[in-house]
Amino acid sequence: MPALIEEIVARLEALYGVAEWQPRQNPLEELIHCILSQHTSDANSFRAYRLLRERYPTWQAVAEAPVHELAETIRTGGLANQKAPRIQAVLKAIYAARGQYSLDWLRELPTPEARKFLRSLPGIGPKCAAIVLCFAMGRPVIPVDTHVFRVSWRLGLIPKSIGEAKAHDALEALVPEALVYRFHVALIRHGRAICKAQNPRCQQCPLQELCAYAQQHRTPSSA
Length: 223
Hints:
single chain; Endonuclease Iii, domain 2; mainly alpha; Endonuclease III, domain 1
């Protein structure tokens, strides 16, 4: 399997380029942004995050704001009435655990312990925990979004029935640590460009002969 993963990454990077990890935000910023990004577009979540930071100078101010006011502030991100109390619950849980509105201390923990704490926060599932660990801390974990999940099961790396939540552990067990970030980014790029949810462009795919889905859906003209 490691050889197959290496081949998949090599072919996709030949098409999309090599992704190099760079820190984006600190762990708490990444976590709050992840909550805002759920069930909305990148443009809307970025705008909601910007409006939140402009209105509230500190995370304590966010935690203590009237929840209806916070919801109105992030309304552009969608599901504001659910996300506002979740953000406040997460901030209060972090403060209760550590006496500070910060997750920088997670950098000192081994990945399993850091993941366990993140997953213990209200409403934080495997994807948001993995996003914080991957993008804010550079840990070898795979955030499984819809693109990563779809490309992975079509390739036959994981069964479709496993679901996105369990796919995190399954894929991390398959992908060598040194390739985790590059694998993650390559699959996202491929899912957006070619391996689309509807009408995947299998004839343009450099993984066609490696892909279980493509082999099962070959037409006589492409055989």
